From TrEMBL:
Organism of this sequence: Alsobacter ponti
Every UspA domain range: 213-276
Pfam families tied to this protein: Usp
InterPro entries assigned: Universal_stress_UspA, UspA
Protein name stated in the entry: Universal stress protein
Domain of life: Bacteria
UniProt xrefs under CDD domains: USP-like
Family, per entry: Belongs to the universal stress protein A family.
Amino acid sequence: MKTVFVPLDDPEVSRPIIETGLLFARRFGSYVEGAATLPVLDNYIVGEMVPLWPPQQRSMGDIAREAFEMFSSVMTRAEVPARERVGGEGLCQGWHEPPLLGDGAVASHARVFDVTVLGRPMNGAGGPRLSLLETVVFESGRPIVITPPDPPTTLGDNVVIAWNCSTETARTTALAMPVLHQAKRVTVLTVEEGTVPGPTGAEMARTLRINGIDAEPVTISAKSKTAGEAILDFAENLNADLLVKGAYTQSRLRQMIFGGATSHILSAARLPVFMAH
């Protein structure tokens, strides 16, 4: 996890995203790169019919400049040196020019980073966009960390894996191994009502222990809750500071119509989420 990408699509809500990216980068002594991203017409998706531009009618140049200034202020205050990390050790940062036009360009650039940090999507015209998050998840081939509205103070010490036995969660857990190796506590959580056919949480925990990670399997019933609600409630009660979750075991359209754990977590998580598809 030596390269961290932080694309910024709305400077007004970017500070928590930058701070979370920096927190993650500190953990691994990484190079963290910021970039302004500007939406284009093809950024509409089903279920997110919102204006493509914030109501302030700021120009593209203004938004790119504000994103750079916000990124630079956080890095300067944290005394992170501005240089590209090439070998060796040590936290450092840089800025990508020119701005990335469209969600596809962001996902393409994310392919050469170990992880991309994005904001949790918000309702309305402002804030992080669901279309950007989903494009990076499906087209980058890399994992993302989703930042809650309030930035965390720790990240990766107490990790919950939302194990639903799926291919997507198996892949996400494999991508999260560097984080899991550093964690002080790892819990493999299975919600009985939210699984697909596959290996149990106990089997996943055994594999992690063989890999040197002291993981504890826990199985719960959602009872009157949805699987997504049960996962978030469990993580909150455990004071977890990172949730590892495979994205969209069900299709996006099915989740939009019927609901699903991914959709609920994307709308309600108050802790960072490590996610991949």
